[in-house]
What does this fold into?
Amino acid sequence: MNLLTWKEIKEKVYVEPPFLLDPYITRGGITLLFGDTSVGKSPVTWEMARAIAVGESFYGLPTTKGRVLYLEVDTPEVVFAPRLKLIPIVPDDVWFLIVPGGLSVGSVVTPEEMTALRDARDIAQPDVVFLNTLRKLHDEDDRESRVPKRVYSFFQKMFPGAALVVVHHSRKVPLDPRLQEVDKEKFSGSKHWINDAQVGLLLATWNSRRENLRLYHVKSQASELLKPLPLKLHKDGTTLTSPRYDELLFIYELIAGGSSPKVEVDRAAMAKFGISASTAKRRRLEVEHNLFPGSRKFLSPNESEEEE
It folds into this structure.
């Protein structure tokens, strides 16, 4: 607890940036990331963890380098370990705590489990903790409004000051990926799971030539809502890319080289990615107007883009 006057808050200098992953993961806050079973939530959170640990962007979205603890209570080690091994660059500051069978937060957490959690906290000293998945963290009725507060409070007290990324499953309701309105409460249980979080993210399938996933920014108390981030999960079930990021990075590197006229930059992007002339020009203008890299403005909600 911290009692401050309005004047003290106004005059206080905050040295640390407010985001670990701008704007999806707030420092010391809660992010609820939800989606259908097997949609790709694990690969997305693995890449988030890796990006934060090495201080690299998450497909163009800036990160602040930090230490990561990944609490895996949903999938046995023998199942997810081979997929992790497919990731070529292994960061130093990511720890996995594997709890077979899950936890019973809110009822009975065994002394052995409490010791394991405390040891992991003391060793990892995490800036962010990924909790995969919510359904294996407690055994209470997730439809009751009091349960989210109890579960969230347990982990906030266990990992004081750390951001929490809570991975959750969607309700068994089909989502048409072409709908303009995204169901912001398309998850199992009480709406307080998202009401008590600072950020809400929905991972959903998307059927197009260039991408098969979209990460929707459905709630934020810390920023404006961004346009969906296009992603592509490859057939190995682990490798994740972003078509928009690949296009922007390619064009940025050409422009940074300084030797290619604008029309040649556009043509090169069209040839490499199979995009239209208008899309190539739009990506180039985003780079020229400093929307990329180093900011999240390339996903600004104020800019429209026709689907191809």
The longest strand covers residues 213-220. Residues 243-257 form the longest helix (15 residues). The chain has nine helices and eleven strands. The mean pLDDT is 91.
